[in-house]
Amino acid sequence: MSGTASATNGKRRIAVVGVGKRVREAVLPALCAIEESFEVVGLYARTARTLEAAGREWPVVPLSDLHDLKDVDLLYVAVGKDAVPSVLQQLLSLGASDTDLLIDTPVVRFRHFRHVASLSGFRRVGVPEDCAFLPWIKPVRDCLASGVLGDLDELVLWKSGYAYHGLATAKTILGADGVRRASRKPVENGLFERRLHLDNGTWATIVEPRDYASGWVQVIGSKGSLCDQAREAPKSLHLEVAVQDGLCRSLRVGDHVAELDEAEASLTAGDPEDASVIARHEAMKRVGLLGVLRNVRDGGMGYPLEAAVEDTVVDYWLERLGRYRATPVTDPGAPLARCLLSVLSRLGG
Length: 349
Known about the structure:
There is one protein chain. The protein is α/β, with parallel strands linked by helices. It folds into two domains: 12-127, Rossmann fold; 132-297, 2-Layer Sandwich (Dihydrodipicolinate Reductase, domain 2). The chain has eight helices and 18 strands. It has a ten-stranded mixed β-sheet. A hairpin with a 4-residue loop joins strand 10 and strand 11 (203-208). Helix 1 crosses helix 6, helix 3 (137-146) packs parallel to helix 4 and helix 4 crosses helix 7 (305-321).
């Protein structure tokens, strides 16, 4: 087997483990949109069945019937959080050192943190965090880079960022690699506010719970701001979507435009014509997942594993304690913290 593709047709040979909503509504549609580069060689779950997704019927094989990985170049694991440790052990028992792994967020539950170490048994590991590849992020970042907003003050995700996914979106928009410190507190009307101070000095606020139908995004700078069209801010640059024949064709912030190609546009059907960018979140996530797969096709591995693990740990402490500060004993990127977190996870079951 080739290190990156099938020797016969040049495609990555991918096996998908899991057949839940994520696979049916996002993974398989995205794989169909890039089938010139990926060949689905197997779809696995606990039991055999026939799955309908992306306008096709897919035979599902019991995972227990997968006896080796010699014909699999890439694994995509999207199973229930509690099933992750056992599924990883089953796949590793087949000999996975020549196989890449994409594993959905949150990678592992906090109480299963010790199993992160087992991921070294795969050739490479990445995370298909589509919220870091949302197609509207590029025109927003291009706008920020142009300097038109001046010095960056704050990113606000109002009901438009969920848990570790929201952390990934904020870090990606602001060009940060990690979280220095964070807090979570209740505010008015049953809402909660997360404040993030990132490692490049930028700040983000995420207001929960998520409600993409009414949510919005805003970036505030010293010279101006930009926001999703759902936000009432007439003096701001607007993040806008152009729709034709029911499909998103482009995303724009001022002079900065991201054109969607046919494969991307094909994943955006189903929203009302006047829906805002944030209200189209599920469609944007499908396009983002296609972006992840294109990144993998081109030699990447999507969202970095280390970043996704940090998002999970930060999210856990915010939910449990309402605060987080990166130190050698809390930052999962630090050796001491990894050791302590592994011990804690053993105590937690």
